[in-house]
Design goal:
The protein folds into two domains: about 10-105, no CATH class; about 120-435, CofD-like domains (Rossmann fold, 3-Layer(aba) Sandwich), CATH 3.40.50.10680. Strand 8, helix 15 and strand 9 (about 370-375) form a beta-alpha-beta unit. The chain has helices at about 10-15, 25-50, 55-65, 70-100, 110-120, 130-140, 160-170, 175-185, 185-195, 210-220, 225-235, 295-300, 310-320, 325-330, 355-365, 395, 420-435; strands at about 125-130, 150, 240-245, 250-255, 265, 280-285, 305, 335-340, 370-375, 400-405. Strands 3-2-1-7-8-9-10 form a seven-stranded parallel β-sheet, sandwiched between helices. A three-stranded antiparallel β-sheet has the order 5-4-6, covered by helices on one side. The two termini are about 40 Å apart. The longest helix is centred in the N-terminal third of the chain and has 28 residues, at about 70-100. With about 425 residues, the chain is α/β, with parallel strands linked by helices.
């Protein structure tokens, strides 16, 4: 015998009563107000009903309309049920009318409200890095929390960002642009728009629209940090993007040349991978640039801090070399996770293992910073020529902080899969703090 399936109307009514939506409380408030209004109207009708001058025919009609021929409890249930149904239908219609301008096509209003509330209750997270690695991380984390802050390096001096930095004297907007696009609630269109590069015209050739957008806002608002904040509001991002420092810093490196003990000094983030040697040490000039205060506050309030993935020497260390920022990370009570790259980067980390990444970081910033070192264990897809897997070698596996998982993007095997990475980080967070309520 086939079971009867609940009607779509009943399923819709049930969905409005799901916990966590924040709707039932306002329905009850509305119902309470209507109840008081109904009591007042009932008192008025009762006085009218008992008045001596009231026509008997009208009283007879009123008696039938009020169902006086039925038991009182049944009348309460009938009129109460009708009233609740009308109130619920009215609230549903009002919400649809008010939310229609903000609804995404094909999305259910209840699903969107539930998803928004779930992510609003997510943990306070800080992601530190730069480049495409940080953008990938943010795409994964934004599905789990809206309490997300990206802290981005401002040492970039290549490409469009470098040209704007040199000609206009603003901080490089490139990595910040990538993060804003990644955190946008309408990433499919905004990524195309923000990542669009002009070509043909001599003045605009090579510039991205997003870089010019942030530069224009810097001029309009009068400050780079306000331009980034306004860009976030314009793009409706799920979280915040903050520069690690507002000072004009330059990345400098000592690099050992191949097959020799000689070292050369290279200035500029974009020049380091091109030096074709082994990076021995990197630092910032000036080396005492203060951190951006909101970035420090975000770190101290965080429940989870994630460093990486990204270029080891040109994306991650430029943030950690800001002394105030590093001190705040040490002082923070958050869980601190380092996400190791999946593949080596030519000119920076050739032949590096996971242990080499961690060792190089600790040589610059000191030991005992991270609680977990997250490594990829899926090496099933061929890599492009010139790159190698960053493997969890024996030294990595003997480190009690190490945790290996499948983080591979099958289509782009040199990158992390944002969904896998976000889920593993949430699992690690829940494992150490307990499940989220």
């Amino acid at each position: 015998m086939n079971e009867r399936k609940p009607s779509k109307l009943w399923q819709s009514l049930q969905s409005w009563l799901l916990p966590g939506l924040g709707i039932k409380r306002w329905m009850l408030v509305t119902l309470a107000g209507i109840t008081f209004l109904g009591v007042g109207l009932a008192i008025l009708l009762l006085d009218f009903y008992r008045a001596e001058y009231t026509n008997e025919t009208f009283l007879t009609i009123l008696s039938y309309v009020s169902l006086r021929f039925l038991p009182r409890i049944l009348r309460v249930l009938i009129f109460g049920g009708i009233g609740i149904g009308i109130v619920a239908y009215g609230i549903w219609g009002l919400n649809r009318a008010l939310l229609r301008p903000f609804m995404k096509p094909g999305r259910n209003v209840l699903n969107q409200v539930a998803e928004y509330n779930r992510r609003a209750r997510g943990p306070r997270m800080v992601a530190i890095g730069g480049g495409h690695g940080l953008a990938t991380l943010l795409r994964g984390l934004k599905e789990h929390t809206r309490n997300l802050t990206a802290i981005v390096t401002v040492a970039d001096d290549g490409g469009s960002s470098g040209r704007l930095r040199e000609s206009l004297g603003i901080l490089p907007p490139g990595d910040i642009r990538n993060c804003l696009a990644a955190l946008s609630n309408d990433e499919a269109m905004l990524t195309q728009l923000f990542q669009y590069r002009f070509s043909g015209a001599s003045d605009l050739d090579g510039h991205s629209f997003g870089n010019l957008f942030i530069t224009a806002l810097s001029d309009i608002t009068g400050s780079f940090e306000e331009a980034v904040a306004e860009s976030g509001r314009v793009l409706s991002v799920s979280g915040r993007v903050l520069p690690s420092t507002l000072h004009d810093v330059k990345l400098v490196a000592d690099i050992q040349l191949p097959d020799t003990v000689n070292e050369i000094r290279v200035r500029g983030e974009s020049a380091i991978p091109e030096a074709a040697g082994r990076v021995r040490r990197v630092w910032l000039e000036p080396n005492d640039a203060p951190a951006f205060p909101p970035a420090l506050k975000a770190i101290l309030n965080a429940e989870l801090i994630v460093v990486g993935p990204g270029s080891l020497y040109t994306s991650l260390l430029p943030n950690l070399l800001v002394r105030d920022l590093l001190a705040a990370i040490h002082a923070s009570r958050a869980i601190k996770i380092f996400v190791c790259n999946i593949a080596t980067q030519t000119g920076e980390t050739d032949s590096y293992s996971c242990h080499d990444h961690v060792r190089s970081l600790e040589e610059h910033i000191g030991e005992d910073l991270f609680d977990v070192v997250l490594c990829n264990q899926n090496h099933s897809t061929p890599l492009p020529r010139g790159t190698e897997w960053v493997r969890a070698d024996q030294k990595t596996l003997t480190d009690s902080r190490s945790y290996c998982a499948d983080l591979l993007d099958e289509e782009h095997p040199w990158r992390h899969d944002s969904a896998k990475l976000g889920q593993v980080l949430m699992d690690l967070f829940s494992e150490r703090t307990g499940p989220l309520s």
